[in-house]
Design brief:
With 354 residues, the chain is α/β, with parallel strands linked by helices. The chain has two domains: 251 residues, D-Maltodextrin-Binding Protein, domain 2 (3-Layer(aba) Sandwich); 95 residues, 3-Layer(aba) Sandwich (D-Maltodextrin-Binding Protein, domain 2), CATH 3.40.190.10. Helix content is 41%, strand content 17%. It contains 17 helices and eleven strands. Helix 11 packs across helix 17 and helix 12 crosses helix 13. It is globular, with a radius of gyration of 19 Å.
């Protein structure tokens, strides 16, 4: 326990910032879970009285659609649901350690850290919100820089312990560059990057939208997480849950998974409608929101539960990530394969698939 507390403290303070309000063409603004005033798309469950604390991030996937449409609130009208916005997965890990969140979105790299020693947090990965592609990219200021080698001696901003950080370290390794000698990496949350960029304090940043698009206005893309995924190092945004919470609230988890699957269906079949929610939550126009979907891949519940996702491959990807983080000094040691297998639960996705 002492090691866990020490490690959590070292990760920094929890960022429990209130979601930034974004105006879009419809005139709606970001809500706290009931922006769309939706009816439940299936039979609601009045019996659920769970108190759930949900950590979300401003990433264009089904989780934001669920939040904006108020699907959980509509389908479980007697539940008490609190949504809190977090800047990065590292902050969500910190919140789990402080027992201040029950369900949360984090990238595969923070999830690996959470499951590994010394933290070994009692959480399960229960959903793949998205497979990250070009949505996370390395944007560079200098037009003459065409590859990572061109950034030698430069300063690159990235949120440490994030999937973007993982992809950047992988790319540097593949390019034969030393992340501690050839470049200067600084830990910067996305919302702080534009000012650092404008102040000429950084030469490049590996980040996601909407900040990525802001920086692209005066820069250009050199690499993306699609490139590192093609090289065999995929990254994900994952839905996680406290194991004790899951055990005590199976009906809530069933409804949560149904809502997530419904949101993915909207993204696949009615992207313009889903984009309205993303636009509200992220603070961009609906047209811009539609384009954001292109940087990710989304999976329906049946695909989630399959052997090449939560049903098997995810645990292997976590172990691969852990071994890489060990080599980079991000964690002390990788846990046994059984630990990562126990940290993945395809149950909620399977329940929707049936």
């Amino acid at each position: 326990m002492k090691n866990r507390k020490t490690a959590l403290a070292a990760m920094g303070a929890v960022a429990l910032a209130v979601a930034l309000t974004g105006c879009v063409e419809s005139g709606r603004t970001a809500s706290s879970g009931s922006g769309g005033g939706s009816d439940c798309p299936w039979e609601k469950d009045d019996s659920v009285t769970t108190k759930a604390r949900i950590a979300f991030q401003k990433i264009p996937n089904g989780d934001l659609v669920v939040k904006d449409l108020g699907l959980l609130e509509a389908c479980m009208p007697n539940a008490q649901i609190t949504w809190s916005n977090f800047a990065s997965g590292g902050d969500v890990v910190q919140a789990y350690g402080a027992n201040s969140v029950d369900i949360g979105l984090m990238g595969s790299s923070p999830a690996t850290i959470a499951l590994s020693a010394p933290l070994e947090l009692p959480i399960s990965i229960v959903w793949i919100h998205d497979i990250i592609g070009s949505a996370e990219s390395l944007v560079v200021r200098d037009d003459s820089v065409k590859d990572l080698a061109g950034l030698k001696g430069g300063t690159i901003a990235v949120p440490f312990s994030s999937t973007a950080h993982f992809s950047l370290l992988q790319a540097l390794q593949d390019a034969g560059m030393d992340s501690s000698k050839d470049v200067k990496l600084i830990n910067l949350e996305p919302e702080k990057m534009p000012s650092a960029w404008q102040g000429n304090q950084i030469d490049a940043a590996w980040v996601w939208d909407p900040v990525l698009s802001q920086l692209k206005d005066s820069g250009h893309i050199v690499l993306s997480s699609a490139d590192t995924a093609e090289a065999g190092k995929p990254t994900y945004d994952l839905g996680t849950a406290n194991k004790k919470f899951m055990s005590a609230n199976p009906a809530f988890m069933d409804q949560w998974a149904k809502a997530q699957d419904y949101a993915v269906q909207l993204i696949d079949e009615e992207p313009d409608k889903a984009a309205e929610s993303i636009a509200v939550e992220v603070g961009v126009s609906p047209d811009e929101a539609v384009k954001l979907f292109e940087g990710y891949s989304y999976l329906r519940a049946t695909e989630q539960a399959a052997p090449d996702a939560l049903g098997g491959k995810m645990a292997k990807d976590l172990l691969t990530t852990a071994k890489f983080l060990v080599a980079q000094g991000g964690i002390a040691a990788a846990s046994s394969p059984e630990v990562y297998e126990a940290g993945v639960d395809a149950g909620p996705a399977e329940a929707v698939s049936r």
